[in-house]
Design brief:
The protein has 700 residues and is an alpha+beta fold. The chain has 15 helices and 40 strands. Helix content is 24%, strand content 29%. The chain has a 13-stranded antiparallel sheet. A six-stranded antiparallel sheet has the order 33-34-35-40-37-38. A hairpin with a 3-residue loop joins strand 34 (627-629) and strand 35. Helix 5 (302-314) packs parallel to helix 6 (345-354). The radius of gyration is 27 Å and the shape is globular.
Length: 700
Amino acid sequence: MRRSSLRSRVLLAALCLALALPVALTPPQRASAEPDTPRTPRLTTSSEALTLTVPAGPGTPGYQLRVTTGQLALVTIRSGATVLATAPAGTGALRFRAAGAWQHATQVTDWNWQDGTLTLSAATTQPGATVKARLTPSADRYRLDWQVGGAVPDRLGLAYDLRSAGHWYGHGETQTPNGGPATDQPWPLDSGQVAHPAFGPASYYMIDPFWYTSSATGVHVDTGHVMDVAINQNEDGLVRLDIDSPGTDPYRSTVFVESTPLAVYRDYVGLMGRPAKSDADYRQFAEPVWNSWAQFYTKVDQARLLDYAQDLHDNGLTGHTLQLDDKWESNYGNMTFDAKAYPDPAAMSRRIHELGFRFGLWVTLWINLDSDQYRYAADHGYLLADAADPTRPCQVTWWNGTAGIVDLANPQARAWYKGRLRTLMDAYDVDGLKFDTRFFDERCAPSPGHRPADYQTLGAQLADEYDLQGVGIRVHWNEAAHQAGFVTRQLDKGTGWNSLRASVTQNLAISTIGYPFVATDMIGGSSGQPAPTKQVLVRWAQSAALMPLMYASTSPVDTVDVTTGKKVVYDEETITLYRAAISRHARLAPYIWDQVQRTLETGDPIMRPLFFDFPEDPQAYTIADEWMLGPAVLAAPQLGDAAVRDVHLPPGRWYDVARRQEVSGGRTVRSYPTPLGVSPVFVRIGAEGAEEVRKALDGT
């Protein structure tokens, strides 16, 4: 069906806009010229709106998209109820910034329905500027592409009414006014505030431009540019998804409409791809990796590291790998050991292997200016160029100084860097690497023919050639990152209870944007804060034991308080309970490994919110301290300094592991006792793997 000519009305609208007079255009009603066919989207019109109807089909619920024409807005409707709506009138659904001021689309001035796409033209609050949008519906989603004519915007934005879709999730690691992501990760997102102004493909944060809701809708913004994301910022009730818009780049997004949030997640994974493999092997899922960072920070040397390894070994604190983190190099980027701190690194590596650990090293592509390799790399054109002056290398300031970054898009630079890694690993029998920092920085210019987002792919390709030893890497945003199957480690956390709680909700956020192999930050936290208390350290270990992987650093045998330089000695109970958490995780390992294989088949997350498995349970949508580990295990560890906690059990029959009894679900168990030795976990009777995991947790 095509819209009849609106030439006279468009001319009238232009004249009215030039005079700054309001005008309301009413599209005439027309009968569809197309016969209705099953599952074919159809358009109907009224004096107020254009309505696209997508009938239900096999596995899809059907929906309507109502486009109001007096003030351009989009309302998504399923089964007669609104499940997603753009911002209220006055705020502007389709927004743009031009000449330093925000403007937005107003009246629809023309439309055309042809070949399954609805094309709209709209006036705007800026005289002479128009918006042209294309809406393309399909069975379980619709595509929205739009751009501005008659003005040159530097930012395009899409704004939603927060409450229209229920609760919001997704995003990944969040910047928040309350210290996120180190100490705050609201779950759901609308339970707090998100203010993330540099949300982009080069970010160090694990993020994706994907959000989903309790109403079973989802939004994916298809961009390679930096975004400014705000969710309920200043409690304004809005979700604002703005992108930097150089030139005439359009705003491209996909809205998913499904019956459950899990179905929306699967749609997104279908778009981006699921992991093709797991970069961690069975042992790396079954045992912790021990990393030196939170134990020593940069005050580490050969003697301290070997003492650390010996203490772990002697106290039965098993692990597959011991990684030497920052600082082992003579200068950052040299890839040579500091001879004073490490007089015999080859002997150090041998001893670590003798104690039963693999040996790993922290590495980065960032070469500090005082490194003897910086001048060589700069002279050979191996470093990323400066965005403002491409004739010189880009220099970036980070937590260890000022550096240049190896340009992975340059084949010669990549070969040089990999050759130096191989020499290092061969010389000291290094089994694997922990890659840190980013592969790109917005202050730099990508190589000709490349975009910033391409460096996520290049970084993934580089890292995929090495054993990442169960700590993985922080790549995101594009298909290559999703399909690589890396373990994802979180951004550094603090050492308090708020960081422990944030580590849980952050894993839920990361695993439900398509990165299912998650670990928290180092057990007990880091961030240069005082060493964790006994209670925090034990509870963190107990929590991590019920996640896909355990990432450890602070030794329960002893550690050093980085803020005072004094030794911290934990008591024997701390060691015993930490060891018990490692043992519980090891008993779960066969079940976890089964979930890894299932994820490779389906893309479904291993650690997931309760509502993925129980979408009809309304309480499940706001629970931030419980999760499902695969289909059979409900984890409800104590995440605070308390002797009891409430535990919500979704409908069904459950086996209470601590009490060794079956209980009925569909209720909340009040004041469940949680002395330090108890970490509540429940097995879903009848679920796949339930009998196996019940025996494992019972120790039978």
